[in-house]
Amino acid sequence: MIRNPVTAESEEGGSAIEIGHHSTWEIAGFTVHADTITSTIIAGGVVIFLGLLLRRSASNEVPGKLQLAWEALVIWVNDQVESTLGRLNPFVVPLAASLFVFIFVANLLEVIPTDHKAPPPTADVNLTYALALIVIIGATVYGIRERGVKDYVKGFTEPYAIMTPFNILEEIAKPISLALRLFGNIFAGGVMLSIIAMLPFWLTPLPTVPWKLFGIFIGAIQALIFALLTILYFGMAAQGHGTGDHDDSPSADETDEDADEKSSAGAKTEKQLQPA
């Protein structure tokens, strides 16, 4: 278990803000962060509840508000992916959308007063590293399945063999940067809210509500960034290093006759649009 305890002392010598302090459990000789596990279970439970609620109320005729919101999110993300990376495996976008919802719900715990019993789990670097490893390992397996082991390994030598160490270093840095980006922003947001709450009224004339709304906004942005980077890493794994263009050329299943028919249809449409 990775620990990051830092304590800010007040002038009287007491502990004013305990940063990185977690209540712990001892399980089979391992020390685990009890508060992080509790808040992760809460966030996961909320996501599962929303999923079951969506499944129960899903309808093709009269979709509910929750269904419309979820479909709008998935469609928007899918359009962004296809416009930049091309068509990926159908499971990639729902995976990223699910990660977005889970991380956003987890980040919302930051603005709920729980007396440190259920802090945002994304403010614990252990959870963010776990999420990042899930994404990177999943992207690696996906890339190998799409390209084969030989072609995937060969991708580390592109565009030149001399770039191989840098490509390997990039792969190692991906989970670290993905985890620390999410952890750092949520962790810093919690510290900011704690410091503002301790300041005297004459220094903070505004109530803490605007700052909590700002924290919600930051939590949503970080969840979105994590989800988009997840899609990007899956796309890079499938296409190889240094490539981001998708192939718009006719597929092998398309015959010359089909191509001629499309060309004739296009010429006919252009002729119809010309003024008489």
What would you note in describing this structure?
- The chain is mainly alpha-helical.
- Helices cover 63% and strands 6% of the residues.
- It contains eight helices and four strands; from the N terminus they run E-E-E-E-H-H-H-H-H-H-H-H.
- It has helices at residues 34-57, 65-84, 92-108, 125-147, 149-154, 164-198, 209-239, 256-273; strands spanning 6-9, 15-19, 24-27, 30-33.
- The chain has a two-stranded antiparallel sheet with strand order 1-2.
- Strand 1 (6-9) and strand 2 form a beta hairpin.
- The radius of gyration is 24 Å and the shape is globular.
- The N and C termini lie far apart (77 Å).
Oligomer: single chain
Distance between the termini: 77 Å
Rounded Rg: 24 Å
Q: How many individual helices? A: 8
Give the overall form.
Answer: globular
Count of discrete domains: 1
Mean pLDDT: 77
Proportion of helical residues: 55-70%
Low-pLDDT parts are: 5-16, 243-259, 265-276
Record the strand order, biggest sheet.
1-2
State the major sheet. Answer: 2 strands, antiparallel
Number of DSSP-assigned strands: 4
How would you spell out the order of helices and strands? EEEEHHHHHHHH
Strand content: 5-15%
Helix/strand class: mainly alpha
